Amino acid sequence: MQVHLPAEKKKTVTLAVYNMGGKQVYTTSPTLVKGTNRITINEVAHWPPGTYLLAINDENNQQWLKFIVGQGPAAAQPY
User: Fold this and answer.
1) In contact, 33 and 7? CB cutoff 8 Å
2) I need a labelling partner for 39 at 20 to 30 A (CA). Which of 8, 26, 63, 71 fits?
């Protein structure tokens, strides 16, 4: 799964994925550069099918995206 994140300046963000039981199943803290950044989460291929929540946090904001893992490629949507 790929997440595209825009950044106005260089900054570090935290991405955390939770299953619907509330268990954190993945976390990473990449440093973004100015422009659009592409973060790939390869681990999603090993997760059981179902609905997951992606939390994206930086120093000022938190955003949640919902995505479904199943037969095809996962696509995140605003939650």
Assistant:
1) yes
2) 71
Which tokens hold the place of 32?
């973004």
pTM, rounded to two decimals: 0.84
Q: Give the max Cα distance, the chain.
A: 36
pLDDT interval class at 71 (50, 70, 90): low
The CA–CA distances, whole Å, from 65 to 10, 32, 74, 76 equal 22, 18, 12, 6
